[in-house]
Amino acid sequence: MFGRSYYLFSLLGFRIGLDASWFILAFLIVWSLSTGYFPAVIEGLPQVTYLWMGVLGALGLFASLIFHELAHAVVARQYDLRISGITLFVFGGVAQLEEEPRTAKAEFLVAIAGPIASILLSALFFGVSASGIFGGIDPLLAVIGYLAIINFILAAFNMVPAFPLDGGRILRAILWWWSGNMSRATRMAATVGGGLGIALMAFGAYNAFTGIVVAGMWQILIGFFIYRAAGMAREQAGNLPGPGHAHIGAIIDRDQPRVPADASLETAAQDYFYRLRPRILLVEDGERVVGTLTLGDYAHVPKMQWGDIPVRQVMQPLTDQPMAQPAEPAKEVLKRMVREGHTHVVIVDTGRVVGVLSRRDIMNFVEPQEERSASTATAQQAE
User: Fold this and answer.
1) How many CA within 13 A on the CB side of residue 17?
2) Domain range for 104
3) Entry cofactor note text (predicted)?
């Protein structure tokens, strides 16, 4: 989903990053606010004032998106779900969960936390705007009023039941609770999301052809994003059931980066996670693998202490890790991970650790295998 991401800061133990595509959104917001919205709200101000109002509005939206995603991340952490970070990109922001929620209740609460946070923020801005605390400073009141409105819109839009938007995840949680089957619920919610994505693209095309070009193009892009993301979710859900024959050993990268157990958390973050961007690291003590490390393990460590705390102090010991052998079928390992709620598996060959794989790594391998098998079967039937 993302291209190059820039690390900004950590907040409440979560890494906040900025995808390069965010700069496109920031430019469009500043431009539209300073040339259209604010001049219509308050007439007769110097253009430089409108420009600064646009910048403040964009920064306020930036902070609002972080607040929205932090709500998801904080609730996810309460359910022991690991979050690799929060990334802002051209269509908003996302809290990047390393694993799916284990229950429908957890999925529902994690999903609804974001819209609730945005509604609360909207109410706060409305209250500040109405309180008269800033007297007659009209430009500042206009920016605060904009943030009140945009947070309400953010909450309302995210409640649309189009997976993977928050509303779609809420729909999946309800379907999951009703059916007892997460894969089926994901496929159903993703199908609804894909349909709504197509509808939004069609609506955007209509607007573009009837003169509302900018809004129409934006709706087409968002609709395509929803349609594509829903399709990926549906395909991944379809990979879960049924046996598979590709072995897990075919996925292993035996040159995976390994971090010394005595290295500081700061070194591991800067030299490994932020530079190489692995989902998970093996931790070595000499020549022996002793554990694993993810960004989620940093959650309860203040950033100012990263330079003083060694990796071994927060890593997950190897003895606590789920394990698999290279000869095991990839789909069987994936099914076991989903069933037992594991985010990764350590691969052991004749007593020696040869790699570690995340659930996403295995999904990304299994999907093309399934497509090739289906294509081969279709070709054989045609012959």
Assistant:
1) 22
2) 5-238
3) Binds 1 zinc ion per subunit.
138-164 pLDDT per residue, tens: 888 889 999 999 999 999 988 988 887
Domain boundary among 184, 218, 238: 238
Calpha distance 172→190 (Å, rounded)? 8
Q: Is residue 377 part of a domain?
A: no
Q: 43, 69, 287, 328: which is the annotated catalytic residue?
A: 69
The strand order across the sheet containing 83-89 reads: 5-11, 14-19, 83-89, 92-97
pTM: 0.59
Do the beta carbons of residue 145 and residue 129 sit within 8 Å? yes
Q: Tens of pLDDT along 209-242?
A: 988 877 788 788 888 888 887 777 776 665 544 4
Q: Is 371 a catalytic residue?
A: no
- Which residues, 6 or more positions from 381, have their beta carbon under 8 angstroms from its beta carbon? none
Same domain, 155 and 304: no
The binding site for Zn(2+) comprises 68, 72, 166
Which residues does the annotation place in the binding site? 68, 72, 166
Query: Going along 35-108, which residue ranges are E strands?
Result: 83-89, 92-97
